[in-house]
Give the backbone structure.
Amino acid sequence: MSRKRKRILIGILVLVVAFIALRTYLIQKPLNYPVNRDMGWNAGDVVHILPIANHERFLIKTSFKRPLQAAPALGVGTLNNVRGVMTDTEGRFWMFDAPELSPDTEYELVLKDAKGQKLCDAWKLKTFPAPDASPEHVRLLIYTGLGGHDVHREWIKTGPQPLSIRHRLLNKALSFNPHAVISSGDQIYYDLSFDKPAKVMGDSPRSRYHVGVFDRGKSILGTENEAILKRAVDPQIAYLYGTVCRSVPTFFILDDHDYFENDTALEGDGFDIRLLLLGWRSPFTKGGISFPPDDFMLDAGRSAQKLYLPEFLPAPGVPPGLPGSGADDRAPDVNECYGALRYGTLLEALLYESRRFTTLTGQDAVMIHPEAEKWLIDRMKAEEARHVLNLPATVFGWSAGKWMEWYPDLRGKDGRLTSQIAKYKWQPGWFEQHNRLLAAASDMKHSTPLFICGDLHDQSEGWITRSGDLDLSKNPVISICSGSLGTGPRMWPSAFRGLVAEPPTAMVMQQKLLPVEKNGFVIVDVYREEIIVSFYAWRQPEPESAIDELAPYHVVNLQRR
């Protein structure tokens, strides 16, 4: 072998060794997870506090740095202590259910251990007004997609905004003092199996090294899967929210990623040479259909909710037997999937997901369980509150060309949406259900037909006048995308799917705010005669310090009919 050839081979070997060493370093590089804290408020060993409220009850989810050996207690004003209920199997996670409270009343809450020692500073939390009360104003903070794990922020710039930036965005949003927070889906991003998202999330080398690998043949809680779940979700919820929402009722709607998968339908497995070069175990991405969720996905999603997120409390007009309720491992009378935020006679906000009960039955297929659909339509007909709003986790009015949308559209060769190409495993019944909900909203006599949607990673406003054969021109349905607080640079529709979201081809919609691909949220002020929606947004290369000075760049003023 010539000297030149030897030098070339040695050079190649050095590069390969250097690449492997660099990649190993990046995979094993330690991670730092700051916890969101209020200055001047002593959290002690408490990691996170997330409460939900109605007019007569609190339900609070908490976690601690270390397991507690005996049940803690929560003092609620002058009432007797509420004994904690352990929700994991080691004593780090506890739930407190405080019933029989007075409406529109602020309570001081004191958390103590079994010996009566305070575990953190006291804080205040207020019940909502009674259903027949007449409040003048309520303010909501609404966003989507705040989930994400810093372990996925690899050198190829995948993953979410870093935890520190998400803290800053959330804290700025909370500075507007909302009466309630609504997070519309994708609380968690940790896809495990299907397609490319899994390869840069739960199936990535960094995830396998730092978090572990689930055993899909075992249950989550009570097995080694429990510790893996906590390592996967702690940074996305417990460390993200910390204790900054302890005095604000929080409403969390589940979406596809909250079941640990993206909504995906692919024929066969796909080969991607980049995955092999970057060292993934396999260059193939898993094909198949990710929803309805299989047993493991359902267990993972429900377990994460059980530990971290409060379920929906009863509200007037919500049937107690709706699907998603009645589970033995939950507090009594709560619902995991469907709920309402009732604020006196001023507001009834309908909150619902569209993944768990999905069917694939063609013309009769649904995304929302038929019993829940009936509930939604009945509430829009009843109009018991001055404003009835739809707050779905799935977007109405725009498409990014992905599988599990209401619409059959795909990205065409010209980069625009088309319905001329068959979308694999898309179900026409989904669009029919979509239109039934739009029709019910448009038929309301007094309330503005307003949908504030999650899922899509942008902010936008559109007035829908036609959807397929459905004519809505007499009372257009207004759809707003709230904005995603956690989206990283490669997860916008234009980056990941090759197009900015567009109205589907079967829809006529006047876009009053074209999709804005920035991290953002909306503040919704509901008054007796009007609703004001203010849009806030930020994105690099704007400096992080600009987050603290955010002002609304778009405002929607909607008068009650």
Notes: Residues 342 and 475 are 24 Å apart (CA to CA).
